[in-house]
Design goal:
The structure holds 2 protein chains of 2 kinds. Chain A is mainly β. Chain A is about 0% helix and about 60% strand. In chain A, the strands form 2 sheets. In chain A, strands 2, 4, 5, 9, 10 and 11 form a 6-stranded mixed sheet that branches. In chain A, strands 1-3-8-7-6 form a 5-stranded antiparallel sheet, with no helix packed on it. The radius of gyration of chain B is 13 Å and the shape is globular. Classes of the chains: A mainly beta, B mainly beta. At the A-B interface, strand 4, strand 5, strand 9 and strand 10 of A face strand 4, strand 5 and strand 10 of B.
Chain lengths: ~110, ~120
């Protein structure tokens, strides 16, 4: 069964203080690893898809990387508006579903 | 370009009642998935619909059922509501190409509270 573990559960940063979020996964035949951002009371907002080890994607202050066992979401010089819960999900094998981790709650203080 | 829309946004029900939640997929998308998200947890897969049929189902009881219409919109029905059914119900849509490697796009959900 597909499994996703995210760490840390919560992260508090000062504005401009770069850091990384971790997503460890086990899946039979990775079809894609997905990162989402979720604001309170809202649905997850799609950020990135990574398909194979070594792949990297960037968007503004965010950069996602993928190895065979984990993915990192690097946040460079974060701003308060980056505060949100970041969710990692995998799709694998013959499954049509996404399996999500519990998320990392990121708070960026001004 | 309208994204995924869900209705209603909030709903309050009592134990034993039944509820119907609705979803319109993003333009150009034909596959709809439903997820349940409890407070502080990641979304849990309920089922997915494609071509008006349930294509895959997660670990949810038969009280949870769904339907997809010819225009690709979908409904989630929950019967005999329990207190534990209180959650945010999310609908996600995706286009069926590239063997389902396309990301799923989510609506803002229906917040269901059971009293």
């Amino acid at each position: 069964e597909d499994q996703v573990t995210q760490s840390p559960e919560a992260l508090r940063l000062q504005e401009g203080e770069s850091s990384s979020l971790n997503c460890s996964y086990t899946v039979s035949g990775l079809r894609g690893l997905f990162w989402y951002r979720q604001d309170p009371g809202k649905g997850p907002e799609f950020l990135f898809t990574l398909y194979s080890a070594g792949e990297e994607k960037e968007k503004e202050r965010l950069k996602a990387t993928l190895t065979k066992k984990e993915s990192f979401l690097h946040i460079t010089a974060p701003k308060p508006e980056d505060s949100a819960t970041y969710l990692c999900a995998v799709g694998g094998g013959s499954n049509y579903k996404l399996t999500f981790g519990k998320g990392t709650l990121l708070t960026v203080n001004p | 370009d309208a994204g995924v829309t869900q209705s209603p946004t909030h709903l309050i029900k009592t134990r034993g009642q039944q509820v119907t939640l609705r979803c319109s997929p993003k333009s150009g998308h034909d596959t709809v998935s439903w997820y349940q998200q409890a407070l502080g947890q990641g979304p849990q897969f309920i089922f997915q619909y494609y071509e008006e049929e349930e294509r895959q189902r997660g670990n949810f009881p038969d009280r949870f059922s769904g339907h997809q219409f010819p225009n690709y919109s979908s409904e989630l029905n929950v019967n005999a509501l329990l207190l534990g059914d209180s959650a945010l119900y999310l609908c996600a849509s995706s286009p069926l190409r590239d063997r389902d490697n396309q990301p799923q796009h989510f609506g803002d959900g229906t917040r269901l509270s059971i009293l």
